Amino acid sequence: MSQSIAVIKGDGIGPEIMDATLRVLDALDCGLDYHFIDAGLTALEKHGTLIPQESLDTIEKLGITLKGPLTTPIGKGFSSINVQLRRHFDLYANVRPAISFPGTQSRYDDIDMITVRENTEGAYLSDGQELIDDGNTGISVIKVTREGSERIVRYAFELAKNNGRKKVTAVHKANIIKTSSGLFLDVAREIAEEYPDIEFQEMIVDNACMQLVMNPHQFDVVVTTNLFGDIMSDLCAGLVGGLGLAPGANIGEKAAIFEAVHGSAPDIEGKKIANPCALLLAAAQMLDHLNMDDKATAIRKGIRDVLENRRDMVTPDMGGTGTTDTFAEALVDYVGR
């Protein structure tokens, strides 16, 4: 039985890495039926809007979307496409694994952790943002709710329980931001009591960032609010070689969007040297979500094998001499064995 998914190829290098990723998914015989939809600059040119209603309807109908990087035009009148999608579909959980792979330029070679970031409220709410005093003062409201905190912390603990992980660290700034961050921490403490078999740790965000650099192995699953999670998940990507190896899943009750978290890199568009790993790893997250664990594992093992043994097929950003297409070719060879 086939599974229909929405596919957004994206802007810049998006179509190149998406084509490589779909080639691998086809080689795995995942039974996926692709529905290509427009968003980003392509949609703006064709439809006059960054996210056409038809695309939103398809995402809602199918429930699963694989998305390449999108470009939000600079200037007033354009809000982040990613933030719009997360809020529109209430994709409250942003899940970003950071896992070491061989042959990358990273300080550590044995990182395996996950950041679970609240995705719909906190400092990223557009509500309450304004300029006053003739534009000389900017005001932004940080809104954290008990409901939002409960569901993201519970998601993190359930993820840990279902994946055999032993520890959840709640990252906060409750010592200073006593209302919003304090509420998040209070809720995290309450939820942690429901999971006595999982170690619970709480850590102030500035200390957490320092500890990530000095001793990242102490972390397993990190759960935090929107702004802190955005910053920390990129820090974690730096521990394993950069955003080229950083996938992300945006999960809600009725929809899920899986994406490469890096940008559209227009400076290398068309050169066929874009690293497809982040989107491939996002596709693996999607397959996990669809209960195709064996196929997800095949992608991750294949990436590891290519990075370690097929350096001539690896893209230049990871020290190889290959292209986007040769990386896909090597991975197709692996999964077809």
Q: What's the CATH first level of the largest domain? A: Alpha Beta
Strand content: 15-25%
Distance between the termini: 24 Å
Which stretches are low in confidence, meaning pLDDT under 50 for 5 or more residues running? none
Strand adjacency order, main sheet = 2-1-3-12-11-4-5-10-8-9
Round the Cα radius of gyration to an integer and report it. Answer: 20 Å
Which key terms come to mind for this protein?
337 residues, alpha/beta, Isopropylmalate Dehydrogenase, Rossmann fold, 2 domains, ten-stranded mixed β-sheet, two-stranded antiparallel sheet, 11 helices, 40% helix, 18% strand
Would you give an account of this structure?
This protein is of the alpha/beta class and 337 residues long. The chain folds into 2 domains: 1-111 and 240-337, Isopropylmalate Dehydrogenase, CATH 3.40.718; 123-224, Rossmann fold. Helix content is 40%, strand content 18%. The protein has 11 helices and 12 strands. The strands form 2 sheets. A 10-stranded mixed sheet has the order 2-1-3-12-11-4-5-10-8-9, with helices on both faces. A two-stranded antiparallel ribbon has the order 6-7. α1 (14-27) packs parallel to α11 (324-335), α5 (146-162) packs parallel to α6 and α7 (205-214) packs parallel to α8 (226-239). The chain is globular, with a radius of gyration of 20 Å. The protein starts with a strand and ends with a helix. The mean pLDDT is 94. InterPro entries: IsoCit/isopropylmalate_DH_CS (IPR019818), IsoPropMal-DH-like_dom (IPR024084). It is an enzyme of class 1 (oxidoreductase). Belongs to the isocitrate and isopropylmalate dehydrogenases family. Keywords: Oxidoreductase.
